[in-house]
Amino acid sequence: MDLSKKRILVTGGKGFIGRTLVANLIEKRGVPQKNIIIPDKRKDDLRIFENSKRLVLEHKPDIIIHLAAVVGGVGFSSKFPATQYYQNTLIDLHIVEAARENPKTKVVLVSSSCAYPRDTEYPMKEEYIWDGLPQETNRAYGIAKRIQLVQAEAYQQEHGMNIVVVVPNNAYGPGDNFDPESSHVIPSLIRKCLEGQTPLVVWGDGTPTRDFLYVKDFVEGVLLAAEKLEPEHGHVNLGSGIETKISDLVSTIARLTGYNGTVVYDKTKPNGQPRRSVSIEKAEHTLGFTPEYELERGLTETIEWYKREKDQY
User: Rounded CA gap, 185 and 114, in Å?
Assistant: First the structure.
């Protein structure tokens, strides 16, 4: 599919992932700005079904890339599980039901590796997603994102809709959320290190592992899915293909930021899922997806961006 000729609705288009995705559409794929529809948060609240329906009927998009979500780190997910579950499920239900107004619209749903079971084989392959419950600390969010797979299958079966699902790993990069109350581990550590907080307190014992996916690789995978993924392929993982221990991440960020303080692991706080990394073999074969950014390169760009923009936080 040639995206340059399409009208594309990007929910969450003004957010962290969305801004990078819109830039890719314009700069790399040649989509005219006028063909990209980005909902206005003030008048297009997707928690209200009429807004989703109006957007689809008014703009008649050829493709909907659904990025809008309520996300946060372990602390945020532990504190607001009902909020995450309710609001994510609601906006997902609304955008897909609204898309039914235009049967020719292709919908790309962006799930999360939090949907995978806590206890499974690693790296996690697509077929493992139903083998158990997600990690307790983000179970509500994980189940909400897993429901997207059920929703896609149901609407394909009953209404013949063209809906595909990608399951990405932990995103990071320029434009990330650096709010200390809701940020994920990478922006949280970068902020603390650059502020010179000492001791540097890290939740858990440092042993969990994650697969960190740089934002530019993340959006490239999503757009490859828009171009190439078909419903019969099933859902597809997106990741870097590299598993990194949290303690190693802390050491790397400390070195790159020049942090020389003491690091303390607060074992009274939750670790989160012990491991989380996905197999990207299917994405490589089906989409031609190849991550370009190694972790240190991505962290360096993120740190430099935050140094320039930190005053807004």
Answer: 15
pTM for this model (two decimals): 0.95
CA dihedral 86, 108, 174, 146 (to 10 degrees): 40
Cβ atoms of 292 and 217 closer than 8 Å: yes
Q: Are 230 and 35 in contact (CB under 8 A)?
A: no
The residue type of 98 is A
As annotated, the active-site residues are 141
Amino acid at site 186:
I
> Domain residues of the chain, as ranges?
3-174+211-242+276-293
How confident is the model over 168-180, as pLDDT tens digits? 999 999 999 999 8
Is 3-174+211-242+276-293 a CATH 3.40.50.12780 domain? no
Write the burial class of residue 285 (CB in 10 Å: 0-12 exposed, 13-18 middle, 19+ buried). exposed
Distance between CA atoms of 256 and 296, rounded to whole angstroms? 8
Closest by CA position to 66, among listed 155, 143, 152: 152
Asked which of 86-95, 239-248, 263-272 is least confident by mean pLDDT, the reply is: 263-272
